[in-house]
Write a structure and sequence with these properties.
Length: 291
Amino acid sequence: MTKKKSTRLSAFGSRITTVISVALVLLILGIIAMAGLLARSGAEQIRSNMGFIVKVQRDAAPDEINRLKQQLPAMPYTASAVYASPEQILQEESQYLGEAAAEMLDINPYNPEFDIKVKSEYASADSIEAIRRSLGTDPAIEEIITAPLTISNVNFFVSRITWILLGIAGALLLISFVLINNTVYLAVYSRRFIIHTMKLVGATPGFIRRPFLLAGVASGLVAGAVAAGILSASQFWLASLDPLFAQSLHWPDMVMICAGIILAGVLICTLASALATNRYLRSGYDEMFMK
C-alpha cells in the first residue's frame, strides 16, 4: 500500500512539475505576444499622426475654402482634416512670438491651411507623394507640405521593431518546444517500464500511446490556463495603473493571446508526448536502461 501511494505521489509530482514548467514557457510566449500587440498599437498611433499640410491660396474665395472643407475630409485617405484660418494661425503663433511681435506685423502673413492626417494604410512616403501630386492640380491650393524623410524613417523603425519581435517570438517558440519536449520526455521516462510491460502483454501502440497523449492534452490545458490567468491578471493590473495601457491593448486582443497560448500548450504537449512515447515503443528492454 505504501509503495502504491509513493508511486502515485511521484507521478502526481511529475505532472505538477511538467505543468509548472510548461506554464512558465507559455507565459513568456504570452508576454512576447503582448509586446507585439503593444508595438502594433504604438505603430498605429504613430501612423495616425502622419499626414501633410495643405496651404490654401491667400486670396482664395470663401466658396473655394468651403469646397475644400467638404472635399478633403471625404477623401478615402483622410483620417482627419482640421482647418485653420489665418487669424487662428496668427493667434497661435503669437503665443510663441509674443503679443508685441504679432502687433508689429502690418498684414497677416499666414495662409489658410488644412492639417490632414491620413489613415494608417496611406501612411507611407509613396502614398503621401501620390496624394500630393493629385491635390497639387487644385487651383485653390498654393502648397502642400510633406515630410517624406520623417515618414520613411518612422516606417523603417516600425518595420524593424516588428521583425525583431517576430524573430524573438520564433526563437522562443523553438526554445519552448525543446524545453517542453524535455520536460514531457522526463515524465514519460519515469514510466518507460510500464510501456514495455504493456508491450509484453500484447497492448497495441495506439492503446499504449492514448493515456500519454491524454495526459499531454491535460497538462497543456492546465498549463495554458495558468499562463492565461497570470497574463489576464497582469493586463487588469497594468490597465488600472495606466489607462493608456488599456487603450493600447484591448481585451479582445488578450482573449486571442490567451486562446493562442492554451492551444499552443495543448499542441506542443501532445506532440512532445507522442514523440517521447514512440521513442520507448521502439526500444527494447536492454535499451530502457541506456536512455
